[in-house]
Structure formats: structure tokens, C-alpha cells
Amino acid sequence: xxxxxxxxxxxxxxxxxxxxxxxxxxxxxxxxxxxxxxxxxxxxxxxxxxxxxxxxxxxxxxxxxxxxxxxxxxxxxxxxxxxxxxxxxxxxxxxxxxxxxxxxxxxxxxxxxxxxxxxxxxxxxxxxxxxxxxxxxxxxxxxxxxxxxxxxxxxxxxxxxxxxxxxxxxxxxxxxxxxxxxxxxxxxxxxxxxxxxxxxxxxxxxx
Length: 207
Prior knowledge:
Number of strands: 19
Shape: globular
Oligomer: single chain
Order of helices and strands: EEEEEEEEEEEEHEEEEEEEH
Number of helices: 2
């Protein structure tokens, strides 16, 4: 088990490799993980590459090309109250979170942004793939080139595709132009809604 608590890990070479490559079990808490800089019209590796089990809590991940990738049938990367800060590379497709080959990412709160200005042209995104979103704030596009996101909570700068919203949930537009307030199918108070449905199923006057 790799445990990293506090501190900073950086990939510093131009177009360099990952700050962390996990093939076992890794736990990061209150850590800053910096991706390599890009140069000469090329791009660096993802800041975090995960093929097994990894949990990142209260941490910051920076990147130009890609922040976290989780790939392989046994790969599960969990982000708890963390942050992704991506500048993006003009003209290149960049992803904040990316899964493939049956990998998975779970997000439980935090702030995640792909700030690339040309996302619509390049297909860049803050989320791409089998990402389970239980909460957090997301800036950038959401795509499913390599797996389908499942959204159960969170606030989004771009309206999520309806097919990404978990069954039994719905998303609403906020006054500030964002989308969020993911609700259960029965609204803000699903338990009350269930009780009301039970009462409405009774036939008055019949004992």
C-alpha cells in the first residue's frame, strides 16, 4: 500500500510522465499532484494513471493534457472533496477524468475544471467515460467516448446529456446559468413523496 499524506509530487520534464502511476493500492490525502508541462507542440502524460485501487482525498491535481486516467477491469479511482485544475492545450483534446477498458472513477464532492477554451472544437472535456458523480462542481464538457458517466449529484457549467443522469434522478437549471440540484424522481423530499403516493393509493370510504 502506498500512503501519501501532505506534500507535493510533480512531474517536471517537458511532455513528461505521470506524477503517480498506481498498479496496486494507493491513498493520497492533502497532496498536490502536478502534471508535467507541455512544449514543442506535444503533450505530457496524465498526472495520475491508475490501473488498480486508488483513493484521493482533499487533494489538488493540476494538468495540461489530462488529470486522472483509470483503466482496466479492476481499476477504481475515488476522488473525495478534491480539485482538478486543467489549463488545457490549445488545439489538443484534453480530459480532466478519463476511463477506458472498463476502468472506473467515483467522485464524491470537490471542484473539477477543464479550462481549455476550444473544447467544442477539440472534443476536450472535464469528464469522459465511466465516472460515477455523487457530488461536486464541474466546469467543462461531459462526454462518453470511453464509457458512460452516471450522474447522481453535482453542479455543472454545461447541461449534462439526459442519458448520463442516473435512473430515478433529474437535473434542473439554476438561476446562475449552471445545472444541478440533482433530485430523486419524487422531488426534493422523496420520502414525503412516497408517503403521499401511499395515501393516494387508498380508496376513500372503503375499509
